[in-house]
Amino acid sequence: MNFDLASTGFMLIATSLVMFMTPGLAFFYGGLVGRKHVITIMFQNFVSLGLTTILWFAFGYSICFSGSYGNGDILGIIGNFDHIFLSGITLVDPSPVNPGVPIYVFVAYQMMFAIITPALITGAFANRVRFSAYIIFLVVWQIFVYFPLVHMVWGGGLLSHWGIKDFAGGIVVHTTAGFAALASVIFIGKRKISDKGMHSIPLVALGTGILWFGWYGFNAGSEFEVDPITTLAFINTDIAASFAGPTWLLLDWIFTRKPKLLGFLTGSVAGLACITPAAGYVSPQSAVIIGTLASVACYIAVYFKNRAGLDDALDVFGIHGIGGLLGVILLGILGTNTMTFLGKDASSLASGLIDGNIAFLFKQTGAVIFAAIYAFLFTLFMLWIVNKITDVRVSEEEENSGLDEGQHGETAYL
Question: What confidence tens digit (pLDDT) does each residue in 97-145 have?
């Protein structure tokens, strides 16, 4: 088999960049929590690197990417078990999306997405959740939320069959994680101990920088080859983040009378989340609109979340849930055939409302609302079950003393 060395090398780099995002998220969240909870939130992120890899190797990859709608999968919802423990895969097998790249690269790249998605949720219930309960949560949520949606959207399942597009994870990653975070906040409740929260803006800035850097692999790598769409996704990623950051900064400046670094960092992440589903389907001019609207919508969502008294500690719902949902809908509006090139077949296009295709907008909106509702309701139900097995919340005394010491016997600072 003659593989494309340029695309294979690029995808190995992109895979590494997406892996690097999970430690980046750990730094981002670690700086946002109080000093007594840094180890806990970072551990919750890092542990997904190991546990999700085990799940992916054992059966995750198989039920995500084995079979397709009407061709060996189960009702278009999950795949089959043909490749459990990566059986039936050889070194010379091509990837299912690009025959010029070995399948093991595809397996690894998609695994990195699976690793970071449940880690995103941890910011919502910071300072409150037992580590044992989180481990159960991580495993069950992957199996019943993330894996089925991967198959339905990216694995040739039901939503893919209906023509739904999600370039790099607006539905599969951000919307599901964000609405699962909202369900977690509602079920677990508020923190009982007043916490000063963010203890290190430099850590948050470091984490944001790593996330932004890794997002080039997240979005540009989702083309899974080196071609003009790869470069489009790359530039759109940067444009959206670069417009979103100053927009949030301006909103902060208007309403708090001070320009805040944290606001710029938060806005940038909102822009990155929102451009994710559309990165390879829209023009750079549309990326400006997406990045700007992302900050406005997410800023409003965080404001109303606070007014409602929901203790989403690190605004996972407001940033990722609303950002991802908005990005999918904006793709239905701004996706255009003009952003393709010779050699791409019609199935790779995302022709939206600006091309006169209102049906695509309805499909995208329906799909993302379905994903949001399913992730929300299943997460509520799952947490109820987990709470029957082991208490989800830590005790008030443990919350007061700090989860780092109480749950792990470690401290971040002497």
Answer: 999 999 999 999 999 999 999 999 999 999 999 999 999 999 999 999 9
pLDDT in tens, 73-106: 999 999 999 999 999 999 999 999 999 999 999 9
Q: What is the DSSP string of 171-185?
A: IIIIIHHHHHHHHHH
CA 102 to chain centroid, in Å, comes to 25
| 3-state secondary structure (DSSP) of residue 72 | strand
Q: Is the pTM of this model over 0.90?
A: yes
Burial letters 359-398, b for 16+ CB under 10 A, else e: ebbebbeebbebbbebbbebbeebbeebeeeeebbbeeeb
In the chain, the amino acid numbered 26 is A
CB 21 within 8 A of CB 114: no
Structure confidence at residue 345 as a pLDDT band (50, 70, 90): low
DSSP 308: T
pLDDT of residue 268: 98
Residue 237 to residue 356: CA distance in whole angstroms: 25
Q: Please give the Cα distance from 5 to 151 (Å, whole number).
A: 28
**In the chain, % of residues over pLDDT 70:** 97
Average pLDDT, the chain: 94
| Domains of the chain listed by start with CATH number | 5-408 (1.10.3430.10)
Q: How far is Cα 307 from Cα 323, in angstroms, rounded to an integer?
A: 19
**Exposed e or buried b per residue across 294-313, where buried means at least 16 C-beta atoms within 10 angstroms of its C-beta:** bbbbbbebbeebeeeebbbb
Residue type, 93: D
Crossing angle for the helix pair 261-275 and 284-307, nearest 10 degrees? 120
Give strand pairing partners of 129. Answer: 393
